[in-house]
Amino acid sequence: MVHLLKSRVQKSSLSELTIRSLGVIESAEIEFGDGLTVLTGETGAGKTMVLTALNLILGAKSDADFVRNGDERLVVSGKFKLNEVMVTKVEEAGGFIEDGEVILNRSVTSQGKSKISLGGVVTTASQVSDLAEDLVEIHAQASSARLSKSSIQCELLDAFGDYQEVLKSYGESYAEFIVLRKRITDLKVQLSVRDIEMAKLQGLVGDFAKVAPKQGELNSVENEINRLGSVEDLNTGVVAALSAISSEENSALSALNTAKKFLEHLRGKDSQLDGLIDNFVELVYEINETNSGMERYLARLEADPAKFDQLQTRKNEILALIKKYGKGNDRELALENLFTEAADATSKLLDLQGGDSKLAELTLESEKIFGSLRKIAKSLTEARRLAAKELSNAITIELTELAMPNSKLSVEVTSSSEEVPTNYSVTGLDEIAFLFTSHKEGKLLPLNKAASGGELSRVMLAIEVVLAKNSTVGTYIFDEVDAGVGGKAAVEVGKRLAQLARNSQVIVITHLAQVASWADQHLVVTKSENGSVTQSNVVEVTGSERRKEIARLLSGQDESISAQEHAGELLELVAAARTEMIG
């Protein structure tokens, strides 16, 4: 979700979104700038379809119901400017990049068939979804519920903390410990049936060594068998072909060479003909070369019954090995897998032949690695506890700024016993819990029990503002982040969104004037008389037109003089606050 980078990072951004036949949107092309962009419009005008379009190009599940009534398919595409890290990731995924930009495209038919492409190359929704984690972060009330998961809370804490080297060391040590522990477990099982297992492994290793197949040998042997088994047919066919080409006075080759001489005399008389002459001479040369090659082939072609029998025997040996030890119906794949299995069998035999002494050796090594793992896990826990206090304070301060002065968020780190090996996981010994209360002196409870939908959205916003400077995510999209708020609280939500937009591109779908007034770019989505949204129904508003839209959001009456005056006053207040914030 969020990845740490302590210095200011270059970030990717969404520059353009194109929508065709999605819901009420007939066609729309939206350009996005940097900073804070807000989308407003009347209910049902298609604002949420913009979010749906973004979800689709980022790999979300598709649905035939998204396709506009009467149309065969919907098509959505997004153009993203990429930073260097994302350029590398997209190129590794096979996508084509032009001028540092990539286009993500998604189509869905009315029958529900979906196709997604990355930089012009067809790919899978899951692959795009993986890339999108560092590209766009989408927040709606439904998606904010993810914040209640302990694994996500652990990711957020680790993204905030300055202990990436400890995390890396722990990951490496844990992976080494798990591999060794599995090896010990496997060896114990194998030792319990040692004689049977050794006989089985020795059979595979011995038979494989006896046959000693080579990579690709089966195809080579079969091709040679086919050749030797067809010597008579090959000889007859090649002789007949050579006879037709060159053995008679009026042969094809003789005629071609004669024609070549005539044409050579005409060279230089007509440039157009010269090109044709060059082509003809080249073809005659190639036919002569092919003829010579066939004569050499014929000279070497001879029956070899002894070699034929030898190859048949070799083929049978390889096939017998595959039949005895191979898996599946694909002979080539089965043989390929046998190379790995034989090598693994050799390694397992060494372990088994060492018996109990090998187990003791591995156990001693495991204890040594476990000791190192315990030390690193302890350091990781200590680092998390320090970071948890800092993150708790920072988020609580942000919540106060978001008009939640009595709210408190506490990041709790609970650790399992370090003595028990099975307590260790890929993330350490720690369980992370975000506890919250919206009341002064209130009892701290898990987020999903203590926070309403609107509060959860603001908690998520507070977290993103705290983490944004170190996050590689380039674009944040918020829908319903202002749900359940109004007045001064709504102004503060807008302010924090503007604060977040100083480090990343932020796109907000809102119905509140107090939030929309903070925008660097204000887009309005409207419906035409027939209830659809077309290119002309998505416009950027500035100046008096923006003031009218703010007035509509405030009172529902964009032509009201008093509403427009109120809107102008709000925009002036926000402009002053923005200047103070930047200063």
Could you characterize what this model shows?
- This protein is an alpha/beta fold.
- The chain has a domain at 1-33 and 42-135 and 475-481 and 519-538: P-loop containing nucleotide triphosphate hydrolases (Rossmann fold, 3-Layer(aba) Sandwich).
- Helices cover 56% and strands 15% of the residues.
- It has helices at residues 47-57, 84-92, 125-132, 141-144, 150-160, 164-192, 194-211, 217-228, 231-247, 252-265, 271-300, 305-325, 331-401, 447-450, 453-467, 487-500, 513-516, 543-555, 561-582, and strands at residues 13-22, 25-31, 36-40, 73-81, 101-109, 114-118, 121-123, 136-139, 408-415, 430-437, 445-446, 475-479, 505-509, 521-525, 538-540.
- Strands 2-1-4-5-6-7 form a six-stranded antiparallel sheet.
- A hairpin with a 2-residue loop joins strand 1 and strand 2 (25-31).
- Helix 7 (194-211) packs antiparallel against helix 12 and helix 10 runs antiparallel to helix 11 (271-300).
- The longest helix is centred in the middle third of the chain and has 71 residues, at 331-401.
- The protein is flat, with a radius of gyration of 36 Å.
- Mean pLDDT is 86; it is low at 1-9.
